[in-house]
Amino acid sequence: MMLLRGIWDSRQARLGLALLALFAAVAALGPFLTRDPAAFLADPLLPPSAEFWLGTTRQGQDAFAQLIVGTRSSLGIGLLVGVLVMSIGSLVGLTAAYFGGLVDDVLSLIVGVFLILPGLPLAVLLAAFLEAGPLTIAAVLVLTGWAWNARVVRAQALALRRRDYVLAAIALGEHPLRIMLLEMLPNMTSIVFSSFIAATMHAIGAQVGLEFLGLGDVSQVTWGTNLFWAVTNQDILTESWWTILPTGLAIALFGFALAQVNYGVDEVTSPRLKVDRAYTALVGQRTGLRRLLTPVVLARSDADRERTSA
Amino acid sequence: MIHLLRRFAFYLLAAWVSLSLNFLIPRLAPGDPASALQLRFQGRLEPEALQAMKRAFGYVDAPLPEQYLSYLGGLCRGDLGISVSYFPARVTEVIADGLFWTLFLSGVSVLISFTLGSLLGAVLAFRRGSVADALLPPLLTFLGAFPYFWLAMLLLYVFGFSLDWLPVRHAYSDELEPGVSAAFVASALSHAFLPSLSIVLTSVGAWVLSMRNNLMATLSEDYVLLAVAKGLSPAKVLFRYAARSAILPSVTGFGMALGFVLSGSLLTEIVFSYPGQGFLLYQAVKNQDYALMQGLFLFITLAVLLANWLVDVAHVLLDPRLRR
Amino acid sequence: MSDLESRLSGGDEESPLLSIRNLSVDYVGRSAVRAVDDLSLDIRRGEIFGLLGESGSGKSTAILAALRLLPPPAVIVSGQVMFEGVDLLTLDEGALRRLRFRRIAVVLQSAMNALSPVLSIGEQITDVILAHEAASRGDAWARAGELLELVGIEAVRLRSYPHELSGGMRQRVGLAVALALRPALVVLDEPTTALDVVVERQILQRLAELSHARGFSILLVSHDVSSMLEFCDRLGVLYAGRVCEVAPRADLESGARHPYTRGLLDSLLSRHQAGTRLVGIPGAPPDIARPPSGCRFHPRCAFRVDLCEHTIPPLFAPAAGRALACHRPLQLVPPDVDASVPPRRTP
Fold first, then answer.
1. Do C116 and B319 touch (CB under 8 A)?
2. What is the ipTM of this complex?
């Protein structure tokens, strides 16, 4: 509860949440409010106008409608992958850290191998051979993405493993799963949340990339397939920036929103930032090694001898 | 030493896993990969050549383990099959062509990104609480949220098409012959500039943040305090004591970053029609050239493993705690 | 010098080496926390002074602040630190740097972290020599070797890295670094916390020997009462950021006058015969963010009166080299120790 309260306190987090709400609204309601993105409505490659806010595509479709309708699928799959990656990664990481020993060695080895295999080439290979479609892409992305989360969670969990309350719980004979989920996990919210955000962003980007290559279901309207259709010729570029630019902006904006919320979470879980600000306010900005030189600031009561030393 | 040997064993394991994945994945597809292969090449290849290729992929009429052995045999012979997109070139030849340009582009981009990012991160950690420190990290994070290829398209459009300042495709001017001449080198560099820039812009943020956080943590370590207490000059304290320790986690991450950049650069190459592995991959996907796809996957993976291994060696050289 | 001043420093002898006056240190945060309040004490030349206190009493804070080595969010809000005629609190970085390790050296707590893991021992000793003196590298390394031998480590270890040494050895290295430039004052912050008893004694012993041989002063900051009593000439006791008592060892052993000091000493096992009850100090140390009013020890003091609750006891000097901050100091003969049994003394 305090966590949510704290997040609300942060200005950045509020901004992020507002943006996320906007995206959610667009995803949920957008398709009902725009034209049919698949319909061939006008001349191809018309620039933005009052009638077509983002102009028309190479096939004469409403680019704005495509962007709006694509939101649902792209964000949905992205978030799904993010949640799955976070869950699987956290579970594996916690298990490895909790049990240690052989379990840890084996799990770490598996994580290591998955981590080192380059994601996109593997994803391309998988997606090319399997049936096209968003769920395939989701599965492929989860497979190539879970390892990073596992490593991050494991590192943090290892530090917690030696804490008093964990040792006490073990001594009391609590079930390992209980300890992992109820004792350790709540103390790792910051890092789990950050890595969830990273995983989601990566998933969205990778998804768009795969679909752009033509490995998604090109009959569906998603951000990635929009780009695919905008670029089907060898000739990547024409003057029609409106078919390409908005997609990237939307992705970046979403990422930005997530990052802002993340910042809010960070602020709550690390009060150091507040202390830093109070300190800088008092002694002014001290760069580099000067920070290690204890400043002398006379107390307010000696106001007439205000003297700040080196 | 032990450490390095263990890492080597790990890389061998990872290499084996990727070989095996390469073997297994086609068999996951709906349908029979052997007949698919047959269909593609029938009429274009001599029957013996077709048979040889099937053996190389393990599409023999035998149980799975034997297929696997057949596949391994093909690998040992360096037989990765024949490319559809570049028929009748062998896959190995096709990959070799693209390898140089990918290494050039990705390698240079990663180095620039790492160096620039670490320096910038160090400056930010140094000027903690300054305006730059408040603005740059969110800005760089924002920049990093853009997909590689989108940023590539943007740069291409703005600087290539609209302003016509830089070339828009290929690795060097069509009129030049590859060779060690000033003109060629200049052309190569100008063609690599935009693609490299797009990679650097999206990846530099991670280095900046990493170095910044590491350096801030290092600066609060006791040994830095002692270095200051010893009355050493600020430069000495920063470089000998703080930076040398702070850079170590970045070095660890370097190997990982290579993998990421290689992935990302694939898409960048596509946008710029840069004749590297990524571009080849694109062609392979478009033409359903599975042999080339598999070959590329294998090759890229092995390259990443090798690069990681080299980074490990460098790491051991830098951190005396690992030498045992 | 005022009467208090001269008493604090021991009277008509030469002026003290280090003289701290009215030092107050805050930790900035949501609201400032006063970690050290109006601290005054002196270190004389050639003496071994022990600053004693529980964890959180502010002893490390006070000394590191006096040396301007306390990291953020600490801020010095008042005071004066006179060393060889200059106020350390008014010096600029350059002047401080010239002073560091040449005149005042520090051995930080937990030498494990005080040595950089990527540099060899030799490099970390020679760089302080080379930074302050115009010596050649060869000379510096030779001296470094001698320094290691001085603290009981073979010179061949110069090429080793910190992680290859045990905790005790690393602490000795810290000592070697501190002695490199023959400073007038060596400050040790909790030098023995992470070490076992045997190693601890060896190191302190060596330190005392060197101090007597070379004539430098030592300031030891620690919570280990028995070690302090064994090795220090004079001790200062800190409680919740304020000085309680300063006295020569002999005086403390025969009778501490501040109830807190008395409590600390009484709780030492060595002072009791077998069969006597163990004595401790009831209660727990206060939260420095919300200290008790008046005398900070009053909630736990068996001898308190009303005055103690309202008024902060001022620091006064009952004799040369002594200081006391108590409204009702105890009598000189401690009632609960058998006076016929002399307190345990170490040779």
1. no
2. 0.79
